[in-house]
Structures are given as structure tokens and as C-alpha cells.
Amino acid sequence: MPQSSLQAPSAVIMICPHRFHPNAETARDNGFQTDAPADAAENLAAQAQAEIRTAVQALREEGVQVHLFDDPRDDRPDAVFPNNWFSTHPGGHVAVYPMYSSNRRIERRPDILDMLKHRYRVQDIIDYSGLEQDGLFLEGTGAMVLDHVERVAYAARSKRTSEVLLERFCTHFNYEPMVFDAYDAAGLPIYHTNVLMCIGTDVALIGLETIRDVARRDEIRDRLSQGDREVIDLSQDQIADFAGNAIELQGRDGRLLAMSSRAMAAMAPAQRQRIETHLKILPLDIPTIEMAGGSVRCTIAGIHLSPRPHLTPEGEAQ
């Protein structure tokens, strides 16, 4: 049986959006977004739905358990990115996060939390969302990239990442915070950490050149390398193609790295070969969704919780 890893969840949550389109409210600080014609809304929504359902099928074929939720509302354009409003953690812990853009705050869904409590062992839910009223934001595993093995929370400074709240999260969940400044090719702060780096069990992808402070860059590279993890450096162009927005998952036959087809095409052959010495790459084709400024990692909320024993139809644990 394949060896499991704290870093690679075998179950995930994904959302099939009802009315997908690039979010005008988030475009102010998300340089990865692409404008869409105003009359293209219906086509974009249908294309995004098809992309998610195809991606879900591909993940399930690899043995990843996917809990797929439909989003019935038409006022949540970024609902397809659930990893920003909640995260799950070993030991039965769940965090709910405050969101920077007001029209993203309505993405939080009690039914998803209820499913987690029903299907998995949830000990507590720490809800930080009330801190939106104080102007404090921390957009989940978009704002933070978590190393569950070494217990480090990497976070690029942005409007969506409060250092105060990051410290509070790290105290509650026992992570060491590593904060840094990161900039895209145009010199603008990168809005989410998970577009510039991905941490797996044996390999990490990171756009080191986005970190201008050389001393801090070296510190982060050295910290990522602990535990004999191989660090693969990504260029600004590769970051722009979402090569850093990937996630390691546990499949039926071993660990795999889920990333978009666009991201995989941006990788040099030597980089792909280095990754594939550790795990399989699973490309997922989501070009419409990527117009919203996020890619595969953003569409997947990993479940790092212990499943409950099998339930009978009457709900009794066996």
C-alpha cells in the first residue's frame, strides 16, 4: 500500500460554480486575472462547470476522494475557490477565514462544515471571520502555504494576509510563520502565496525570483530544503502560467501533483523529470477558471481529517 503523507490529503472538497466569471472586485489586486467580455457570462459559466466536472473525474480515477458541491447562487463568482475560506487540520481542527473582498465573504457555507462534521472527526472550528469588521484578513491556504511536515506557514505580504492574524493562526495551530515580500514581473505584490509556491512531501516548487530580498530568499529556500526536500525554482513567466499553483494529493497508487495543463506546459522538461522522480504529475485542463486569477490549487480544499467509521443508513457508526 502506498505510504501516506501529512502533506498529501486523500480527500478534497471542490465546488461546481453556477455563475462563474472573473470577479471585478478582486481584480484590483489580483494581477493574474483576465478580463472577460460582458456578454460571455453564460458561456464562461458552462465552460467552468465542464472543467470542474472533468477535473473531478480525473482525480477520482486516480483514487482521490472528491466531495463535489454545486453552488446554486449567481452572486458568488469565486465560489470555485473554496480553499480561501476554510482549511482542515490533523487532530480534528477546522479554521474559517476572513475574506478581503466583500462579495467573497458569502462563499462560506454551513452545509460544507456540516458535511465535514458528519463524515470526519471534527473536534473544533476556529472562526476568524468576525475579524473582517476590524480590517483583518487571512484568506486560508491561498494566503498561506502550509508545510504540515515541518510545521511552517509561508505567507507573502498582501492586502489579503494580515500578519497579526497569521501570528494568531500559527499560535492556535502550531506553525512557525515565515513572512516575506513577493512581487510579480510588473513589480506588484503577489496577492496570494499559493500562486508562487507549492510544498509537497519530497519536492517544493517556488518562484524564488519573486522574493527580492536575497537574504530572505535564501532563508526560505534553506527552510524548504529541510528534510531532504528538493526545491525547484520557477521563473516569473512560469509563475504567471500558474506553475506554482499546484497541490500534492494521495492517490490510490501513490502521491500525485495536481496542476493545470497550462502550468505543466510551462515547465521545462528537466523540471518535470525532477518532479516525476518523486511523484506523478496529473495535469487538469481549466483555462476558463484560470481567467479568474487562480488555478488548480485554488479549486481544491484538502481534507486533513480522520474519517468517521462507516455510517449505516440510520446514521449509526459501525
TrEMBL record:
InterPro entries: Amdntrnsf_FN0238. SUPFAM superfamilies: Pentein. It comes from the Bacteria. This is Amidinotransferase. It comes from Aliiroseovarius sediminilitoris.
